[in-house]
Design brief:
2 copies of one chain form a homodimer. Chain A is 51% helix and 24% strand. Chain A has helices at residues 3-12, 17-24, 82-87, 108-117, 119-145, 148-158, 162-165, 168-175, 179-192, and strands at residues 28-32, 37-39, 47-61, 67-74, 78-79, 94-107. In chain A, helix 4 crosses helix 5 (119-145) and helix 8 crosses helix 9 (179-192). Chain B binds a DNA duplex through helix 9.
Chain lengths: 193, 193
DNA sequence: CGGGCCTTTGACTGGTTTCAACTTCTGTGG
DNA sequence: CCACAGAAGTTGAAACCAGTCAAAGGCCCG
């Protein structure tokens, strides 16, 4: 149930068996069906979720009702609305499951307590937050400096399996494009090769 | 010399005078003239800089030699290449001063040591990294879901003084636009009001 | 005062969006 | 098991908007 989570943890900060059991006591598991919400706009985000298996997305609804997908999280990634989680303010985002998913959940209170008790957990989430920051910075870089073709190719190398698991119109939303434009971008790429 | 840094620190995590002196012993000050580098591509980023006063930018050079500005840091913000700082690998970015600047510097070795010795410092940089992540996520949101006009207006509300301190073509680069397009965006906005 | 950089403006080009139609695929119910 | 409705993806044409190239004016700095 926690295989991937602790695999991830141990690759980042090695744990003894006892430490692992201790940390596990602060975690819970949650299974979500496709389309089920983990968080809805207006709610306070009270947890951080690690995706053991599945695909989650964080998005907001535009004024015109369109879904703007900000982040995908597949197996091995974390997802939360960090702003709402830290400040306790209502979230402006939705989080839901793109496919049936298994999550490892830690609540805010559990996380706060565990951070005080375990230097290794503290270190783990610090490094993971840093990694998440670096990823976003890379994404900004590609958005402001690459062509659509190159941005799509980069997405494929970073998340090779995403096109098989996520509908194309969601990838278009993630890239800030219309579905039609992404379809044409893909066509241009396949013709070139 | 460290006024703003510790003002910031105390607003995030309150310190006693003794704790402040202890932390101060790990910090150094650096003054940079406009156009001076803090980091050049190929170097390993060995420090995190806090901008006491001034404006810094992080950017990369595109294949065509164009500057792609990823991040600005004005008074009260941090700047570093977090990837290079964490992994010790050579940076693909440049950091330099947009105007004469005063920085509070902490090196990697000092930061690593201080994190072990001071839970409050650990907490401070964790919260600051989280904030930085949230900021980037907001920026991604606006890039994929807002019009150019709205993105520019948002930039003005988030950094009201930036247009007086940063040349317009750098703001265009930061937004991923040509200088000509930004000029026309500004014109459209002023006509509307 | 002069030179060079920055910003603005114009005309033109190229690429993205929009709208609409058509096809394919999927899941559902008869 | 087939029929059908709805969603998803593709394609085309027209409108729109950002990029490019070029030129002119303004401003800062030497």
């Amino acid at each position: 149930m926690f295989e991937r989570y602790f695999q991830h943890f141990n690759e980042t900060v090695p744990l003894t068996a006892a430490e692992q059991e201790f940390i596990k006591s602060y975690l819970t598991v949650k299974k979500l069906r496709k389309r089920q919400y983990l968080l809805q706009e207006g709610d306070v985000c009270n947890c951080v979720a690690f995706v053991e298996k599945g695909v989650m997305r964080l998005y907001r609804l535009g004024d015109d009702g369109a879904e703007n997908i900000i982040v995908f999280a597949t197996d091995g990634y974390f997802i939360t609305d960090l702003y709402s989680f830290i400040t306790n303010e209502p979230s402006g985002y939705h989080i839901d499951a793109v496919e049936d998913s298994e999550l490892v959940i830690i609540t805010r209170s559990a996380s706060d307590e565990l951070r005080k008790l375990s230097a290794k957990y503290q270190e783990f989430i610090f490094l993971k937050t840093s990694e998440a920051y670096i990823q976003l910075e890379r994404r900004i870089t590609s958005v402001i400096s690459l062509s659509l073709e190159d941005r799509y190719k980069e997405l494929l190398t970073n998340f090779p399996d995403i096109i098989h698991r996520v509908p194309q119109h969601m990838i278009a939303s993630y890239m800030g494009l219309t579905p039609e434009t992404l379809s044409r971008v893909r066509k241009r790429i396949t013709i070139q090769n």
